[in-house]
Amino acid sequence: MGDWKKTSCVLCAQNCGLEVMVEDNRIIKVRGDKDNPRSQGYTCRKGLNIAHYVHHGDRIHYPMKKVGEDYVRITWEEAIKEISEKILQIKEKHGPKAFAYAGGGNVGGQMEVGIGLRLLSLLGSRYYYSSLGQEFSNVFWVDGRVAGKQGLTSMPDSHNSETLVAWGWNGWMSHQTPRTRILLKEFANNPGKKLIVIDPRLSETAKLADIHLPLRPGSDTMLLKAFISIILDQGWEDKEFISNHVNGWGELGSLFVGFDAKRAVEEVCGLDYQDVVEVARLLARTKSSIHQDLGIYMNRNSTLNNYLLHILRAITGRFCVEGGQIFPAFLYPIGSDSDERNPKTWRTVKTQMFPVLGVFPPAILPEEISNDHPERIRALIVSASNPLRSWPDTLAYEKALADLELSVCIDVAYTETARHCDYILPSVSYLESYDTTCFSYSYPELYFQMRQPVLEPISPEAKEGSAIMLELIKALGFMPELPVSLYQAGEKGITFYLKSLNGYLMENPQYSRLAPLILGETLGKALGSVNQALITGLLANGSKALKAGAVAMGYPADITMVEKMFKDILGHPEGLIISKFPRDNFQMLKTPDKKLALVIEELLEPLKEATIEREKEALKMPEEFPLILHAGLHIDTVANTMIRNPHWDKEKTWEKMWVNEADAARLDLIDGEKALIKTKTSSAKVLVEISNLAAPGCVYIRHGGGLIYEGKKYGVNVNELVSSTERDELGTPLHRRIPCRVEKL
Ligand SMILES: Nc1nc2c(c(=O)[nH]1)N[C@H]1C(S)=C(S)[C@@H](COP(=O)(O)OP(=O)(O)OC[C@H]3O[C@@H](n4cnc5c(=O)[nH]c(N)nc54)[C@H](O)[C@@H]3O)O[C@H]1N2
Ligand SMILES: Nc1nc2c(c(=O)[nH]1)N[C@H]1C(S)=C(S)[C@@H](COP(=O)(O)OP(=O)(O)OC[C@H]3O[C@@H](n4cnc5c(=O)[nH]c(N)nc54)[C@H](O)[C@@H]3O)O[C@H]1N2
Ligand code: SF4
Ligand SMILES: [Mo]
């Protein structure tokens, strides 16, 4: 028998603690890890199937290069040399704007991003694209204004709420909060707690709801405005909270006066007015929190809706309070602020798009590559992301990759994207390396887990993504000659090393911006892992609040803190609490006065213009495409594109399209037959499944279909059906509202 080893699931952002039994370097059993302080033994079906993520027939075993239509094996030396030479040629000829970096990390690990972004900036470019730019841009942008920093997004403190609103979130399937199913069952069974689901369909989560508001798809703006006006009309707003913690309400409040909530609710949203009034009361008068998700994020009016959600929470006094919306603690932020009002913020050459949180939206990338602007993107490094299955408009992406002068894919698997790149470089998987993510939010205690390898590298030649990036940086000549003493310092413990590094940087201030690279290179050698070295760097650069909280827990207040904490981290592969943040959650705000800055000038006009008449008109579907395609359900047979062996999905959901009974009857569709779905972009054959989970007027295809495994394609890649131009003002795709029609075959 093998041993149980502690790790975590890497298949969604929850990173639940797992224990795996390993025999002959294979995972043979999996169970939830009760010792993990955050997930406490919780797992879902996907976590229990994690072996499929590492053991499958499409792992990449060595560097490869495309020659004609085939890939040939090359050595690491050849790969790094050829890629860096090509980069230098492109830089020389076309300048820094020719480079883009995509991905670099996903829900399982992000240590590579720190090095990848520095490579990009050493080349002189800021064109970083990631999946964050196709779901969170709108909320991150709104947070930048209201909370004072992009990406400073509040999380529902749902385990302590009395009312939980699931708004465009199907938590039963997608999780997105610790121990979700336990939480949802608690709400369903406890008469003192109310679960409200705002979703056009009777989702698995809606089936558990105390009140389900099956609103007309896309009518969320009207419902939000209605909630706010009802609360104001009833005098239910929290006046004390508003006067103590909110700036700008005086100016905003008048915009809701005279809004005909009843008419909006009944005529636009198609809901029962009394139900809506009751939910407004629960929002205002109980400990409420709201979890919004892709039904809001990837939908029309996303920026405005996120803004209205902030207004709703602020006037009901739900920010920074127990059971409300909490700004979580973190070791490192999810990204760095990029305010588009600053003239130094880059825009793209073709679409003139700006980044949010330093991230450009994937929907524009094909256009930024396939054009004839002299400064178009010509070289792309993509890592830990699978644009050809995950990002909108697969066909445009295929063309774009072919248009590049250099494309490099770093992955663990021979993915749909890898198959279109000039070079494929093998990374060790998240279960074969040290890594961590910033998504495992907690508050006020800062939970942290550094995953430790539970398997030997399955491909002996595979490396950490961060180490690969570092190799490229060295080959490009960006790394100075470092003194041997710095390499040796790493052997003498982390404290000694950090002092030596500080000394070196004091003497060589010109290299300060290279600090993480130097750390990764020198301490990384000593520790045998660049990622581990980077984590010590994150600890050393932790915020004041983090350090004060660590000292309060007994960590030393000087530079020795890092070594002590790092030892504890290594000694707790199940994760641990490393700091306690101030209980006063308002202190987490980045606005100068620690108040919520509720006025966003740019959104005042759109807010006024969102009238009942205009919304009614805007919600009409075009005659040619009368149905709404929900392009990508996140159900429990999907793990984004992380699991490659299709056979773990016994229900073969990759070929299905869900449709409700009335629509099926109208379209003369029979359960189990093939039908044709057509969008403005393309068409596909799908297997009809008639289901009461589907809302009238909508059809559903899961996310992550179209997998190519061992040369065979499985089902529909829904991103082939969407155009990259179906996006909003921040570049977010409208995947929850793709006009389509379905035809009987
Ligand atoms: N099993 C599983 N879990 C996952 C993932 C996975 O691949 N598989 N992926 C993870 C990731 S990266 C993410 S981002 C999350 C996504 O998690 P979710 O956002 O929960 O995923 P969706 O399946 O898109 O569910 C969105 C819900 O919004 C509803 N909706 C659609 N249109 C509207 C509308 O107009 N208004 C409202 N109010 N609601 C609407 C849909 O009916 C649907 O129930 O899941 C994570 N968890
Ligand atoms: N149409 C449509 N498209 C969608 C969605 C939708 O609802 N509809 N959902 C979107 C959402 S919310 C998200 S978050 C994205 C996710 O899309 P992506 O950013 O593509 O993320 P993943 O599919 O999780 O994984 C990406 C890649 O990481 C690789 N990988 C796994 N482990 C490692 C590792 O250790 N190192 C390296 N280098 N690579 C590794 C995997 O093999 C995979 O190729 O998809 C989005 N795409
Ligand atoms: S997929 Fe998410 S919820 Fe399921 S076990 Fe993994 S981390 Fe936990
Ligand atoms: Mo996501």
CATH top level of the largest domain is Alpha Beta
Second rung of CATH, namely the architecture of the largest domain: 3-Layer(aba) Sandwich
- Determine the strand fraction and express it as a percent band: 15-25%
Radius of gyration, Cα only, in angstroms?
25 Å
Widest β-sheet, arrangement of strands? 5-4-17-16-15-6-7
Largest sheet data: 7 strands, mixed
Shape, principal axes of CA atoms: globular
Topology, number of strands: 28
- Tally of individual domains: 4
Mean pLDDT: 97
Number of helices: 27
Summarize the entry for a quick read.
By secondary structure, the chain is α/β, with parallel strands linked by helices. It contains 27 helices and 28 strands.
Question: How would you portray this structure in words?
Answer:
There is one protein chain. By secondary structure, the chain is α/β, with parallel strands linked by helices. Helix content is 33%, strand content 17%. α5 packs across α14 (302-315), α8 (220-234) packs parallel to α14 (302-315) and α21 crosses α22 (530-540).
Q: Would you spell out the secondary-structure blueprint of this structure?
A:
Blueprint: E1 3-8, E2 17-23, E3 26-32, H1 45-48, H2 51-54, E4 64-67, E5 70-73, H3 76-94, E6 99-103, H4 111-123, E7 128-129, H5 137-146, E8 155-156, E9 163-167, H6 171-174, H7 180-189, E10 194-198, E11 211-213, H8 220-234, H9 239-245, E12 246-247, H10 249-253, H11 261-269, H12 273-285, E13 288-292, H13 294-297, H14 302-315, E14 325-326, H15 365-369, E15 379-383, H16 387-390, H17 394-403, E16 406-411, E17 423-426, E18 445-448, H18 465-475, H19 484-489, H20 494-507, H21 515-527, H22 530-540, H23 544-552, H24 560-571, E19 576-580, E20 596-597, H25 601-609, H26 612-618, E21 627-633, E22 656-659, H27 661-666, E23 674-679, E24 683-690, E25 698-702, E26 707-709, E27 712-714, E28 738-744
Parallel strand pairs: 6-7, 6-15, 9-10, 9-13, 10-11, 12-20, 15-16, 16-17, 21-25, 22-24
Antiparallel strand pairs: 1-2, 2-3, 4-5, 4-17, 8-14, 18-19, 21-28, 22-25, 23-24, 23-28, 26-27
Helix pairs in contact: 3-18, 4-18, 5-14, 8-11, 8-12, 8-14, 20-21, 21-22, 22-24
The protein binds ligand MGD (2 copies), iron/sulfur cluster and molybdenum atom.
One ligand MGD is lined by residues 103, 106-109, 131, 134-135, 294, 383-386, 390, 410-413, 415, 427, 429-430, 465, 631-632, 640-642, 703, 718-719, 722, 735.
